[in-house]
What we know:
Blueprint: H1 2-55, H2 60-79, H3 84-107, H4 114-134
Amino acid sequence: MQRRLLPPLLLAAALATGCSDLEDAARDTANGAACSVAQGAVDGVSGQVDRAIDEIGADPEAAQRELAGLREVLDRAAGGISGDAEQALRDAADALGRLAGEARDAAGGVDVDTSAVDDARDSFGDAVDDVRDFC
């Protein structure tokens, strides 16, 4: 009777190991796809973000529109992925939202809060670094 149980137990163990390998491969593929989306998104907006930040003092309305649009790009990209890459994109989008808010305030006649702009710029940079570090 023991001889009959051994082959099914070995088969079950082999299948369990195979499933684990398949799960790992699927997770690696999903992470790779998420990274591709996240890196493409941050690479696509980074230069534009810098230019928009520089415009907050000179043309805050244009800067606000630009930053809000770039935030939307990151929000859309984050909506299609999950995990660490998604969170990093959400963090970057939140920073752009804060920058857009500063530009909106400046367009309304409020003096630009340079420390808030610097803080949001740093947060955006940290989120971009997180995407690049994770991926």
